[in-house]
Amino acid sequence: MTEIAPLARIFMPPRPATQSGKGRSGEWVLRFAPTEKLRLDPLMGWAGSGDTMKQVYLTFPTKEAAVAYCEARGISYEVEPVPAPAPIKPKVYADNFRYGRAENWSH
Prior knowledge:
Elements: E1 7-11, E2 28-32, E3 39-40, E4 47-48, E5 57-60, H1 63-73, E6 76-79
Parallel strand pairs: 1-6
Antiparallel strand pairs: 1-2, 2-5, 3-4
């Protein structure tokens, strides 16, 4: 039986919508692709599989470090491009209370 090299995905995760800070936003993540399908447990009905590699979640400070990790261990990988950052539209808090404003109140 031949051993199939696992396929890994290297990407930079987006900032969660519920967080406004930038902590841990510059890290690169390595996740392994699932190697088997999910199956239902006959007793409880939960979905699961015997694939333990999908639980592995490695972080790296740079993309080059993640690629070097994969190449040193013979792991085939795909690198996802970094999405362009959304432009920040500056706002003035006092404009929320300006007389004659055209926008609806948000609160």
